[in-house]
Every structure is written in structure tokens, then in C-alpha cells.
């Protein structure tokens, strides 16, 4: 349900002193206390004198040299809070960009999500999440004492899926849901919304208690103000993009509730987000110029509000009146929005005129806007926050499904790099925290965490590189499962399959065709002769892929209709579609499709932990420019015996991940690929191909030998083909 980028503050205890040892145990203090103390004093003085003499020999009358302390060049007056996963824990840290100090804030269990900084000494999070990503409670963590305390407990049979906190950190609204133990979706469950005053967390105010029915919207908590006013989005479960179906508002106790008539379905396309002062809710809207917002375009297959997000608007929380931001052209399209610390709106603009594309800052008081970063069409940099005048925090998001995480305010891709972007020239300074992938949590003032434990400093001028697997993360993300639970249609035995896979390419193509007036097919992706369309497609495809979390790494099955196959995967998998229940029982249909249960599929999708810890080095492949990756994959794919559909799926999964001038394109041989991902079949396939591709972004050309292609067995009888890839950043 999260559709926009997030943000959130804390300190840590000092280390306990080490126990002191009595190295002078040849004296007995019980026998002669004064003599013991004098002896110790003389002994220490003697040692000190000896040390002084030895350090001064040969250098008379020279002062003792003191090693100069390296000066840190301040990057900004901010502290950035981030999180990441280790094998057993969720680590929360902060880096002070003015001093370069890295603070260790908390080491929590892996089964948590959504961390919010309340004060320099406290943070809260959803605790003890289960396999459906629902938590047992909201807990607080004291940085000085390192103690976790339960604040708000979920009702019996319910789980906490989300919460939102007021700007003054006093009030919280909690979304609890109950689903059947065997259900994969929300429909058929129950939705409850509570408000809580954190000064008295044991008192829960029930605002809504609603059955979750197909086609009927329930109220989902969006924001709560400093006065305790709660704003809710009407959400239709298991209906695709179910948000933006109207809004309601309630007081803290729930005694006064009403729908907001101006916020009807089809008039906005992103979930509204609250300003830092709680005065406004900002969102991307639709003005009705292309027809009713709820009407579905017969050619594109999506409703007009999603195809034409052409306004940016605010809702005043003091009057509940809606206002369109002046001076913004309705002929352009707008992507995600956020707020800076001064109460200005940050938005992304996509236009037919590619010279206008980029991130903009809109000053509400002056009704003026200016571009702050030119990266709307896929340069690889994502705006995170405005740090101060002429300084931005940006990041490079990992576009793989397996990097989507939930340590921040929502489900977002992990960042491979975090940088300070200086205006107006666009100079970029990488923040060297030496972590491969991190989740952005919050932005606070410099010196905010001065009482916390310093665990390191920014590594200036150093780059930490680590192999990243497309299908590997230290914590299996639950985002795709959550998406299937909330958004995928209720299964219909006849055609449940294809609806289970989010159509990211189709949505991106539809949005860009509508904007540009073109008729390109989604299979053409970003390789058309129209550069504006190509840039538009890259942006919307990557955005759709990250928010809809389209799964990759497909397993294809071909064979005689009626043949039955049992499939076992020999390493831990996650994000699987359909759900893996100790194996798959498959019935082939003879046309490249197959049944699992009552549903039909064209491939099995999943992410996985590799079965081998060390991935062998690659010393062959081809170094190509970005525009030649497509052609190279076509060539390599054919030589490896892949069908065009399989090749296109691979190309689709790579789009948006590479923004370097050159890329090494290669692949692991069949034997190594099968060690990375062991799969067993009963009966065994007549032909089984398992291919893991390898991509390494490069800044310059390097020399490398071309791969040798083994003879590809002709497909016959029962054939299984698995395709995935590794991105070495």
C-alpha cells in the first residue's frame, strides 16, 4: 500500500569499563595498606620515567610529536539514518555528514519492519512479523539501555501491517488485519484501524472494524496530525492498484467520522502524504481532461487516473479543502512526490519535451517551482531528501525484487550507493559507509545522535564493492508476497495465472503512449526510434517494477499435455509465484503452460539463496555500450538455446539496473548454474537448461575473451529451462 518514498531520529550507550586487574599481586594490601599504595605509586612513576626517557633518547629539547588527526570535509549539516540486514539481525545506524562519524543505534531481530525515530534516545518498529509480514506488536527501543518494550499489542488473531505517526510523535494510527490461515489474500479477512496516544499506549481507540470484501473499499490509515485528526485512504483489496478510492477523516476517538467529498475515486493516483508541519496532504491528481478518471481506456487497459497523473494538489487539513498547485502544466505527467524539511513539495516531471524532465521543488507560498535534479528518465539517481540549500541526498536503487525491503517507512528498494548531490553543478559525493545495500530510514540534523556509540567514520575516497545477486538478499523480502496478498485479484480457476503477474511493461507502455501520442508495443520496451518515449518508458517501467515488484527468475516447463511432474528446489526460495509448499505438483498442458492446483501458469517465478557461498570468477564475455546490451542478449540467448520469449523476459528484468557507460555481459556454464540453483524433477527432464547470466557495470572498456558456447541439446520430450542473473556492482 506504500506508494511514496519515506523518512524518520535516536542515541546509544557508552561501552562498560573493562574490569581492572591487579598486576602487583606480589604485594599483599591486607598486610600493609600504606606500603602497598606507596610501592604502587613508585612502580608506576618508575615505568613512566622509563617510558619518557626511551622516547626522548637522541632528540633532546624536542617536544613530543603528536600524530595529526585527519580533517573530515563536511558533506552537509545532516545525519542520515539507515538500516541493513546481517545474517541474524536488523542493524540500524546513522552517519553524521558534518563530522563523518557513523553511529551504531540498534541491533534488532530480523523479524521487524518499519523503523521510526522518535527521539535521539528512542525508536519504534513493528515487531515479531510472521510469514505474512504481520507483526504481533509495535515495540519501542531505548538506545541508552538497549531495552525493547512492547507498546501496542495486536488483537487476538490479528497482525499489525502498518502504522503512521504524527509529526510531533505523540499520536499513532495502526492498521491491523486478520486473514485466514490458508488464504493468500486479504479478501475474506477483517480490517481494523486504531489510534493511540503514545503517552498512554495501553488505550486503543477503535476507528474502523470492517470485513474485507471483493470490490468493497476499507479504510487504510494514511496520516495523523498533531491534533490527532486521522486521514484514511479507501483501499479495495485484491483489485490491482487498490488505493486512491476516496478518503475519510476521523477524530482521535472515532466519535466523528466523515468521507471527504472532494477526494473521490478517479481524481487522484497516489496516496497523499503529510507535510512536516501536518498542515497539508500532497498527492498527484487527475483533472478529468481525458475522460472520467474511473473509466478504463479500451486500448491501454488502465483507468484514466493512472494513465494521466497530470496535476499536483494539496488537501488543507485545517479546512479539508482541496487545492491544485498553480502554474504547473497539465500537459505533463507527474511521478512520485515528497516534502522537504521547509514544507516545499518535491516532485518528478515527465514530459514530451525531454529537456524538462527531472526533479522539481515547488514553493507553495510563492506558487513557483524550479528543477533541482535532471534525472527523470533513468540516469540511475533517485532523489531521497533535500538536506539543506543546494544540497540533496540521492541514491542508486537496486532494481531487483530481492532488494526491496521494509526497514524504512514503506517497501522500497535497497540502495547500493548514497550520495550528496551539490547544486547547481550536480557534483556528487559518495557517502562511504561501506555497506553493500542499505534501506533509507530518516534524515535528522547533524549532532542529533551525539550521545550514541560511534562505531566508525566515513571512508573518504574508498569504494566498497560486493557481488550482488539478482535473486539474493540477506533477508528474504516479503514485498511481493504482500503485494499478492493485498493487490492480486481473487483467484479465478480459469485464468488466475496471468493476473497474478503484475504487468509492469504494459503499464509503462500505456502511460507513455498516452503522454506521447504514440502506439508502441510494450515488447518494444525502450528501444524505439523515439528517444522521449524511451526515456519515459525507462522511468515508468522501473517505477512500476519497484512499486509493483514484478518477480523474475522464471522456470519454464514444456512437454506433453497431461504429463505430471514433481519439482523440488534444493535451496531456500522466497517471493515465489505460486506459493512453494515443499515442492510443486505440476500438470503440463502441452503449449508451454501448466497447471499447479486449479490455476494455469506459463512460468514459475521466485527468488532464492544460492546454494554455494562463493560464486566463481568470470573471465569471459563481451564489454558493450548500454545501447548494445539488448542486441548482445539476443545473440547470446540464441546461442544458449533460449526462445525469444525467454530472452525478452531476461531483457525485461535487466532494464533500469544498468546506467554505466559500458557493461560486461556474460554467463555461468550449465554446471555452475545448477550448483548455484539446484532443482530436482520427478521424472527427470529429457532436456534441462539452467543459465545464470552475469552483468558487471564498467566505466571504461576492458579486454576480455569471448565465451565458448557448448553444443545445445535439441528440445524434445519434457524440457525445463531456468533463467536468472547476477549483477556485480
Describe, in plain words, how this protein is organized in 3D:
By secondary structure, this protein is mainly β. Helices cover 14% and strands 36% of the residues. The chain is built from 9 helices and 44 strands. Strands 32, 33, 35, 39, 40, 41, 43 and 44 form an 8-stranded mixed sheet that branches. Helix 7 runs antiparallel to helix 8. The longest helix is centred in the first third of the chain and has 24 residues, at 33-56. The protein is globular, with a radius of gyration of 29 Å. The chain starts with 32 loop residues before the first helix and ends with a strand.
Structural class: mainly beta
The end-to-end span amounts to 30 Å
What number is the mean pLDDT? 81
Helical percentage: 10-25%
Main beta sheet: 8 strands, mixed
What is the alpha-carbon Rg in Å? 29 Å
Q: How many strand segments?
A: 44
Q: Strand-residue fraction? A: 35-45%
Please tell me what the overall shape is.
globular
Low-confidence stretches: 2-65, 462-477, 493-502
Please tally the helical runs, counting DSSP H or I stretches of 4 or more residues. Answer: 9
List its traits:
single chain, 729 residues, mainly beta, 8-stranded mixed β-sheet, 5-stranded antiparallel β-sheet, 44 strands, globular, disordered N terminus
In brief, what are we looking at here?
The chain is mainly β and 729 residues long. The strands form ten sheets. Strands 32, 33, 35, 39, 40, 41, 43 and 44 form an eight-stranded mixed sheet that branches. It has a five-stranded antiparallel sheet with strand order 30-1-2-3-31, with no helix packed on it. The protein has a five-stranded antiparallel sheet with strand order 38-37-36-34-42.
